[in-house]
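Hi F.,

I've been meaning to write this up properly since the lab meeting, where we talked about keeping a consistent format for the predictions we share between groups. The idea is simple: the sequence comes first, exactly as it goes in, then the structure tokens exactly as they come out, then a line or two of notes. No screenshots and no reformatting. I'm using this chain as the first example so we have something concrete to point to.
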Amino acid sequence: MDRRALLFGGAAFVSSAAVVGGASLAFGAASAVNERNEGFLITRSDYEWRSRLTKLEYNVMRKKGMERAGSSLLTREKSGGIYHCKGCNLPLYSSEAKYNSGTGWPTFYENLPDAVRTKDDSTFFVQRTEVHCRRCGSHLGHVFNDGPAPTGLRHSLNGVSLNFVSDSEADNMLRKGSRRVLRV
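Output, unedited:
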């Protein structure tokens, strides 16, 4: 076998491996997207999520990113009210379960009934528990077992994943007979 045949054969092998490997990566990526949407009542295409969310919201809610500690105004929010999923407006947490954990993120010791789901998360070589919206699958943050009584849990959330509706705002809307319209 001469050098030219060897080089040609090697190049053909590498290019065919790249095509097959690229196809399997593409199918794997589509499969991961489909798995993420499976079982959620609200599903949207990647394009729809990107058009509805800011870059930071998209990175956190759809790519499991994290906002910088202390950057969310919701960390300092002290009004009574309900925290909703920014992806689908599902009520998730009551201000009555909120506390200051000193971590720099909005933190709660429990969620509203049937509002969130959890799953194991071993990214960054650490075993954690991810918490996400049960209706649209948006990533909210993580749950840890070092919280206060009565649950002993610390739901440490990204403020960009949440919309806050204060009790006074909700009362005003009811008195006026109007409904707040959030992107759903």
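Notes:
Residues 39 and 135 are 9 Å apart (CA to CA).
Confidence is low (pLDDT under 50) at residues 1-37.

If this format works for you, I'll send the rest the same way.

G.
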